[in-house]
Amino acid sequence: MPNRPRIILAHDWLCGLRGGELVLDALARLISSIGDVAGLYTMFDDGRPLTPAINVLPKTVAMIGRLPLASTSLRRWLLPLYPSAVEDLSRRLAREHARQPIDLVVSTSSAAMKGLRPPTGVPHLCYIHSPARYLWSQGHEYAKKSRARALGLAAFGPRLRRWDRVTASTVTRFVANSHHTAALTAACYGIKRAKVHVVHPPIRTEAFTPPPPGTQRDDFWLLVSALEPYKRIDLAIAAANLARARLVIAGSGSHEAQLRRQAEALPSARIEFVGRVSDERLQELFRTARLFVHPQIEDFGMTAVEAQASGLPVVAFAQGGALDTVRDGITGALFRAPSPEALAEAARRCPKDADQACRANALGFTQARFDQAMATHISELLGSSQTLVPSA
Hints:
- This protein is an alpha/beta fold.
- 38% of the residues lie in helices and 17% in strands.
- It contains 14 helices and 13 strands.
- It has a 7-stranded parallel sheet with strand order 3-2-1-4-5-6-7, sandwiched between helices. The chain has a 6-stranded parallel sheet with strand order 10-9-8-11-12-13, with helices on both faces.
């Protein structure tokens, strides 16, 4: 029996369980079924358990990530040191390869880990969620958060963008989470668009399911998101006020206090903040809301597909990953102007009784489909004569 390939995983940071970590979990389980995960390399790790598949992996943390408080919110202030952290991990990776050869590096990146340098002759597959947003697409939004952050991005941004572009050459193959991300990756790194592949993230369609047939949905809008400026929750609040709709907002973040003040300043608004919710509570909200509001530009937008898996139609801004996931007039409604009026109008024409159409659309984003596509990419980079098949 041939030796199982030794594969290294790399991820920007292990500091909470969000969409990127769910993809990392899927990759860890997939790779464990077709090879051996020789380790997980990361810049920061706050020590919290994430998922069983991630928790069991031997972890290598960059030197700066082991500094006191570095793996808390302080990590964002260490942005100028990210290239040094990735270089530190690259040297450790080279030593590990010299100790026992590695066959493949698989990184997931929305910040800096795509810059991890593989040992000579070892291919590097990068599953890219987005080129670093604070450098390329949303720097102005991050700069709004504080004057210190704005000054930091102005001072270090040009050097970091040069580093980010140059280190794209360490990647043998980019796999993007959406066509939007693929186009952005090609533009930022000077790569032909045809060279960036697309594999949509896996959605937990077995966990998120429609309500029983005949169930009457409540008359409220639902928004599930981190409460950050670029998520455009302010737009949803203003639109709900215009439409006289009840809006339930699940999530937390740095923008919460400002959003609450906005809602309180609208006397007739019916806005309810419920904070971060469990999966069980989220399932209940998906199964009882009338529509899901997705007002931001997302690289992919997993919650919009989770909503559809639950039979819930989506009102989404017609840019970013929503163009891959929402079928206008069938599983939701797209709006093209970032205004409360446009969002409210889309909500009025959002299809009702769309449970079956939404569910059918969401089943195009299953774990099995993700596993099959990623196993093909992995086998091609390993030089396998046939596609590796994940074990049951």
